[in-house]
Amino acid sequence: MWDYTDKVKDHFRNPRNVGTIPDADGVGEVGSLACGDALKLTFKLDEKKERIVDAKFQTFGCASAIASSSALTEIIKGMTLEQAAKVTNQDIAEFLGGLPEQKMHCSVMGREALEMAIENYKTGRTERKELEGRVVCTCFGVTENEIERVIRENSLSTVDEVTHYTKAGGGCGGCRGEIAEIIARVRGASVEEEKTKPAKKPLTNIQRIKLIEETIDSEIRPLLQQDGGDIELIDVEGPRVSVSLRGTCARCRMAEFTMKDVVQARLREFVTEDIIVEEVKP
Questions:
Q1: Rounded to whole angstroms, how far apart are CA atoms 57 and 217?
Q2: Range(s) within the chain of domains with CATH label 3.30.300.130
Q3: Among candidates 152, 257, 271, which has minimal Cα distance to 214?
Q4: What does the alpha-carbon distance between residue 54 and residue 50 come to, in Å, rounded to a whole number?
Q5: Which CATH architecture has domain 129-195?
Q6: Where in the chain is the domain with CATH 1.10.10.1100?
Q7: How many CB atoms lie within 10 A of CB 19?
Q8: Set 62, 106, 175, 249: catalytic member
Q9: Domain 205-279 falls in which CATH fold?
Q10: Nearest to 7 by CA among 56, 80, 60, 63
Q11: Which of 35, 62, 137, 139 is catalytic?
């Protein structure tokens, strides 16, 4: 699975600055529950409106999302707005001693929330300018502008890397060809170079089941347990995964949403794109 640093584990288990600032000077909200990750960042400036004296966050996401958000608030406290505006997703990852490549989108989400909060303070805007671009990945709402930017800032060269940093292409996979074309345009490479890269070796049944179990334990169960719910893996037959919701999730009217937009979305992101999740009623 993923190898988390001790600092990532610490900021996940003991997150700093959780909550919101009621009279915040800047507010940034990015992501959505439908995409599986969401972050709200608020900050407060000193009396001279020069430095960030407090920063808090609320997030719905995995261990890396919580750790990245916690790290971000620690990084920006004491900074001027000009200094905070220069914080990158790589700065967040480096503060934590590194993140698994598959989890770099969590650091990108932090950078986006910070930019949005600063923009909110300066102009009152509540949406990032990047969102004005054309949506390429409809599964996760990722725009062409966002993909181009993350490619440039992180020197990405493959579709899988773009997926790790933005989630684009991690759902149905229908946009992967277009992502390859964007990479080629940004980096000046041939699209054929991307298309002819060797395909990933198919998972064996044992590998697939093990990865599904690990993804449920690290990516899905912690989210459900936050609201008193849980999940049990019932069976795996090819791409079909049977699960049963437990606790409050079993009685929740949002169970269908949870099954499709959390459970199935996460398994498609971290296991294989063809997974179909079916609920078995307890």
A1: 24
A2: 205-279
A3: 271
A4: 12
A5: Orthogonal Bundle (1.10)
A6: 129-195
A7: 10
A8: 106
A9: GMP Synthetase; Chain A, domain 3 (3.30.300)
A10: 63
A11: 35
> Which pair of tokens denotes residue 149?
């930017």
Are the CB atoms for 75 and 87 separated by under 8 Å?
yes
Per the CB < 8 A criterion, the answer to whether 31 and 38 are in contact is yes
Q: Find the helix or strand (DSSP H, E) in which 160 lies.
A: helix 159-166
User: Where does 6-123 sit in CATH, by number?
Assistant: 3.90.1010.10
Question: How many CB atoms sit inside 10 A of residue 173's CB?
Answer: 17
Cα four-point dihedral sign 275, 276, 277, 278? negative
- pLDDT means over runs of 10, the chain (282 residues): 83 94 94 73 95 94 89 97 95 94 90 94 74 78 90 91 88 85 84 51 83 87 81 90 88 76 82 88 77
**Is 172 marked active-site?**
no
List, in sequence order, the alpha helices (H) in 226-264: 248-251, 255-257
- In tens, the pLDDT along 114-133 reads 999 999 999 987 765 545 67
Q: Is 123 in a helix, a strand, or coil?
A: helix
Told to judge if 106 belongs to the known catalytic residues of this protein, a careful annotator would answer yes
Helix then strand then coil, % of the chain, to nearest 5: 50, 20, 30
CA–CA dist 109, 39 (Å, integer): 7
Asked whether 136 and 102 are in contact (CB, 8 A), the reply is no
